[in-house]
Specification:
Length: 242
């Protein structure tokens, strides 16, 4: 809320308009309009000190030096949960039974603990869906938990691979793209061979144009002997015959 922050800085500090504009990411004319109370919207001042965006020491430095650029403070690191069940938004919690039913039907080798980590549910719920004693079992339709947004595809694949390895089940290989992959490799090889032939043809043509075709060198001993026998001098004229 840059405008509300600028309003608080104007009312409670001696910072210049340019300093406030730079810190809040506003144009100086916007800050001037807030100070002159000519804006169409009345902003409620927002204290950046209480929001841990500025410190009192930083404000004092700015008031002492009009050319000083205020630096925003880094807030404390948010507390991250490292244990306990996965948090699921309220809007998606009704989809959990559908995701559990899908995993139980398609990947029965996954343990209840792994399902609980993926979906963010309890073993009691999983057991109730497995033995069809869940209170809403009539309305549960197995759906992919990735499609429902309950977990990512990478997380699901990792749990499936781990469970398959533990159970001694060979993970199925995806062969749907094998034919397309082979065709692509063959096409790339053909293009590479065609490019090589074209390059060789261009090199031969260039050598012909430059007169580099094979010929007998001027200093060839056979040519010298022929000129001597047939009476041709080295300068191309006829030599005196005996």
């Amino acid at each position: 809320m840059p405008h509300a922050t600028a309003c608080w800085l104007i009312e409670n500090t001696g910072l210049s308009f340019s300093q406030i504009a730079d810190f809040c990411g506003l144009h100086m004319l916007e800050v001037q309009a807030i100070a002159d109370d000519t804006t169409s919207i009345k902003y409620t001042p927002r204290d950046p000190v209480r929001a841990h965006e500025l410190t009192v020491e930083e404000i004092r430095k700015g008031e002492a030096d009009p050319d000083y650029a205020l630096k925003i403070s880094r807030g404390s690191e948010p507390v991250r949960r490292t244990k306990g069940p996965r948090y699921t938004p309220v809007s998606k919690r009704q989809d959990k039974p559908d995701g559990i039913a899908w995993i139980l039907r398609n990947h029965p080798e996954i343990s209840d603990g792994a399902i609980g980590r993926l979906i963010g549910t309890t073993r009691t719920t999983i057991a109730a869906i497995r033995d069809r004693s869940h209170w809403n079992i009539a309305n549960i339709v197995p759906k992919d938990p990735v499609t429902l947004g309950l977990c990512s595809q990478r997380e699901l694949d990792a749990e499936v691979a781990k469970a398959a390895k533990k159970a001694g089940i060979e993970a199925p290989a995806d062969t749907r793209l094998d034919g397309a992959k082979a065709a692509l490799i063959e096409e790339l090889r053909r293009q590479r061979d065609d490019a090589g032939r074209d390059e060789a043809g261009r090199d031969d043509a260039a050598r012909v144009e430059e007169g580099e075709e094979q010929s007998i060198p001027a200093s060839n001993p056979f040519r010298e002997e022929a000129e001597r026998l047939f009476g041709r001098s080295s300068d191309g004229g006829e030599a005196d015959r005996d």
